[in-house]
Amino acid sequence: MSDWLQSVVQWLHGIGIHPTTDAAVAVGSAVGQAGAAVGGAVAPVVAKMDMPSLLALAAALGWASGFRLYAVVFLVGAMGYVGWIPLPEGLKLLTHPAVLAASGFMLLVEFFADKIPWVDSVWDTVNSVIRILGGALLAAGVFGADSGTMGLVAGLLGGSLAATSFATKATTRAAINTSPEPFSNWLASFFEDGLAVAVVWLATQYPVTFGVVLAVMLLVSVLLLVVLYKFLRAVVRKMRAFFASGAVAPAQSEAACR
């Protein structure tokens, strides 16, 4: 910067303008302040990608992928594309226009499919493998470009979190679908839409707070899985008893006729 300033001063001397030393210092000071202002504006964004932030991002991608994979891919890619968050090298592929278009299309398909009772459970079954695998790959991408070991650890963490959230979602939806009215299904689906956005935002803005929230969500997931598993087993037993009694009744009527 000083060489550039010296060249400007020499050029001014050549055309007959002789700035004083104080003026040159003032110009240099102004340039330095401008640079400091730009650096101060960029620094908070870059500083967010420290180790706690990266761990929180990996965990959030894994957890949210278990119930809204396509929304997570589109949301993170779009935020990185417009410069709202600095993405690690392993996730910059998400900002490619083709990836944004594909994930955006699948997001719309999932948004409507998830609002229809029983169709949502079929959709969950079809996407079970890709959600868990996607969560593992996204979490691994946070560190994979810089450290293979950390990428593997993050992938295992992300896959486990995705499997947990997927199991909770699928079990909850199966229990909700036992009710004939569709409103509870719609409310659950909209809640999951908002939760995916909230998880990603909280992890990128307040990683430590997200860690606490994630621990609470894991505890709630375990409790829901235990309670709903018992509930679904009871429902299955009642359905088996109902169909068994229905099959016995015609057989007894036929025997009486004979």
TrEMBL record:
InterPro entries: DUF4126
Transmembrane segments: 23-47, 54-82, 94-113, 125-145, 210-232
Source domain of life: Bacteria
Keywords, alphabetical: Membrane, Transmembrane, Transmembrane helix
Location of the DUF4126 domain: 55-225
Record has Phosphoprotein as a keyword: no
Entry keyword annotation includes Lipid biosynthesis: no
Any Pfam family matching the protein: DUF4126
Protein name (Swiss-Prot/TrEMBL): DUF4126 domain-containing protein
Native source organism of the sequence: Ottowia oryzae
Taxonomic path: Bacteria, Pseudomonadati, Pseudomonadota, Betaproteobacteria, Burkholderiales
